[in-house]
Design goal:
Elements (H helix, E strand, L loop, with lengths): L1 H4 L37 E4 L3 H13 L5 E4 L15 E2 L7 H8 L1 H25 L6 E9 L2 H17 L8 E4 H7 L7 E9 L2 H14 L3 E3 L6 E3 L8 E5 L2 E5 L2 E3 L5 H4 L7 E11 L3 H4 L10 E5 L4 E6 L10 E4 L23 H15 L12 E12 L5 E4 L11 E4 L9 H12 L3 H4 L50
Parallel strand pairs: 1-2, 1-11, 2-7, 4-13, 11-18
Antiparallel strand pairs: 3-6, 4-6, 5-6, 8-9, 9-10, 12-15, 12-16, 13-14, 14-15, 17-18
Length: about 500
């Protein structure tokens, strides 16, 4: 797998597949606030996805007079955020045992709490700013066609319900036959349900971006960054190069996710791109006739021995209501999709993944699917580029390594496909660090220490996606509350 981490990372493709969410694009998609690129700014943020956009808004909330520029290689929000599956799902319990073993009880709980807090914060932002983004609050359902995965999920959910108070969802464990009947998935061992939802991540982020623009943000789309030069001599400024000229800043902030190593070569193999693929399907005629005219009222993850697919139904009142958005599908590829690591080409569809996703709905729902819609099963399909990390956690904070050249540069990236359940809170913590407000705002009290980008994390070898297999049984029955001293010295 390490060789996939060595594949050179290029710039975003100029003509990507058209995302379901970006059809049509928003009127600000190609906005340049000023005709010319500013020559200097207090803060330059690279990337206009949910991380970069939320960072920009938060800086301007706290420092209204700051000069903030966001640079985007393509259209606004044209990367992973605008190309995802629309799931707001804080599934932290699924990796809780792994985090418990690595970092201790307190840190594992922090991680679960952050994911739920991000869901609640997203809802708050939508309500506060009146963002029209099809946000739908509902229960999510995790099903399991593998016994070991089911046993791990069931025991972890019960543990968290019993021992963790406050800031974490309450999980409902649904046994086998009840789950098979209730959720129309005939081959599951059981299910776990909890608070989650769906969202048009593109419209959500564009909505936040418009708020930031009203506060004075300068957005420069179709402006790819080709290089960043660290300060030299007595200057404190970094120089950011683009085909339209250069801009200097004392504080660059990278929200570049899978493309980061293109700009910081010492992060090659630390943040590794991963191409994902998604389809929008019209529900089968039997499924579409159930549950008040929608195919399902819940969102889903269908968990296998290795990996999973995720699914959301488009809510009532949304464009193409009832469509099923389903993503994942690496199973038919060699080595569970290893060759998709290191790929930044989102201009094409992988045909084997396409075929698998087209069939996955009928495979999962069986006879409950029924005949296809007369207009055809697949309405749309597209690809997008995620950022994955060697340890399965995001990188947040000052950028270490490379001789200290980037000590005043910051990063908020590598969300391993779970950005909608982490980014808004990671962006908040990033701004705390950028502005030196961590003590004032109590960041250490809620933000996972394991998310901070420390020099030790540069040493972790990349081995592919984390937390897609059930952990071994060594932790079962042994988890207990612990104090800060149990957090690993690896942090």
């Amino acid at each position: 797998m390490e060789e996939r981490g060595r594949v050179p990372v290029g710039l975003p493709q100029p003509n990507p597949t058209i995302s379901y969410w970006q059809s049509p694009p928003d009127p600000i998609a190609d906005l340049r606030t000023t005709p010319d690129l500013p020559s200097q700014a207090d803060y330059v943020i690279i990337g206009s996805g949910i991380s970069g956009t939320t960072i920009a808004k938060t800086i301007l909330d706290r420092k209204p007079s700051a000069k903030v520029v966001v640079l985007e290689a393509r259209q606004a929000c044209s990367g992973a955020t605008g190309r995802n599956g629309g799931h707001t799902k804080p599934a932290g319990y699924r990796s809780f045992k792994d985090h418990y073993r690595q970092y201790g009880y307190t840190e594992a709980v922090r991680i679960v709490r952050l994911m739920y807090a991000a869901l609640l914060e997203s809802r708050r932002l939508v309500k506060e700013h009146g963002i029209q983004c099809d946000m739908h609050q509902c229960q999510t359902v995790d099903t399991f066609d593998d016994k070991k995965q089911w046993e791990n999920a069931e025991s972890t959910a019960r543990f968290l319900n019993e021992y963790v108070d406050g800031g974490v969802e309450k999980y409902t464990v649904v046994p086998g036959e009840e789950a098979r009947v209730r959720f129309l998935v005939p081959d599951t061992y059981g299910a776990v349900t909890y608070d989650a939802g769906s969202i048009n991540g593109y419209k959500f982020t564009i909505g936040i971006l418009k708020v930031a623009l009203e506060k004075g943000l300068n957005l420069q789309t179709n402006t790819p960054v080709t290089a960043i030069e660290p300060p030299s001599g007595t200057s404190r400024n970094y120089t950011i190069r683009t085909p339209r000229g250069s801009i200097t800043t004392p504080t660059p902030i990278l929200a570049t996710n899978g493309y980061t190593a293109r700009l910081l070569p010492h992060l090659q193999g630390v943040i590794v791109p991963l191409r994902g693929q998604i389809t929008a399907q019209r529900p089968g005629t039997t499924l579409s006739s159930t549950q008040s005219g929608l195919p399902l009222q819940n969102t889903f993850s269908f968990t296998h021995a290795v990996g999973y697919e995720y699914m959301i139904p488009r809510p009532l009142g949304s464009k193409h209501e009832g469509d099923i958005i389903i993503g994942g599908g690496w199973s038919p590829l060699p080595n569970d999709g290893a060759d998709e690591f290191g790929v930044v080409d989102d201009s094409i569809i992988e045909p084997r993944v396409s075929a698998y996703l087209r069939q996955s709905t009928t495979t999962t729902f069986g006879a409950n699917w029924g005949p296809d819609d007369p207009e055809g099963r697949v309405r749309h399909e597209w690809t997008g580029i995620m950022g994955t990390s060697a340890d399965g956690l995001p990188y947040v904070g000052r950028i270490p390594g490379d001789g200290g050249k980037w000590d005043n540069a910051f990063i908020c990236a590598s969300f391993n496909g779970h950005g909608m359940s982490m980014c808004v809170k990671c962006a908040e913590a990033t701004v705390d660090m950028v502005l030196g407000e961590e003590e004032q705002r109590g960041t250490d009290g809620w933000f996972p220490r394991s998310y901070r980008f420390t020099p030790n994390r540069l040493k972790v070898a990349f081995e592919g996606r984390k937390h897609i297999r059930a952990p071994d049984d060594a932790t079962d029955g042994k988890m207990q509350a612990a104090d800060e001293g149990q957090i690993s010295s690896r942090l």
